[in-house]
Specification:
130 residues; mainly beta; 7-stranded mixed beta sheet; 4-stranded antiparallel beta sheet; 0% helix
Length: 130
């Protein structure tokens, strides 16, 4: 059974940092493209960042570029999202997502639509106060 479990969310002041983690189990982790999405209250879920099998390719939403960094440790079957210079607009539930692919980046790169991902975590709340 595939499980994605996010952690690391919390309350932080504007300008602060958080690091989210997503521990994966029940899958061949190094054959999955991984991604982070987020959903703010009364808004649709939106793409944040994605990373290829070995981490050599990454892609970010414009809204988080140069502030957030996605990375992965395949030995630990974990993907991370380092979030710096957080703003109130970053407040959302953050979700980890996984997509099995035949190649390191998959046939489509980057995958930014949530329906393209096979597996999802339950989410972790990030709240940024002003």
């Amino acid at each position: 059974q595939v499980q994605l479990v996010e952690s690391g969310g919390g309350l932080v002041q504007a300008g602060g940092s958080l690091r989210l983690s997503c521990l994966a189990s029940g899958l061949t982790f190094n054959r999955y493209v991984m991604a982070w999405f987020r959903q703010a209250p009364e808004k649709e879920r939106e793409f944040v960042a994605t990373i290829s099998w070995a981490g050599s390719s990454t892609y970010y939403a414009d809204s988080v570029k140069d502030r957030f960094t996605i990375s992965r440790d395949n030995a630990k079957t974990t993907v991370y999202l380092q979030m710096n210079s957080l703003q109130p607009g970053d407040t959302a539930v953050y979700y980890c997502a996984a997509k099995v692919t035949a190649t390191a980046r998959g046939s489509t790169w980057p995958r930014m639509r949530d329906r393209e991902y096979d597996e999802w975590g339950q989410g972790t709340q990030v709240t940024v106060s002003s």
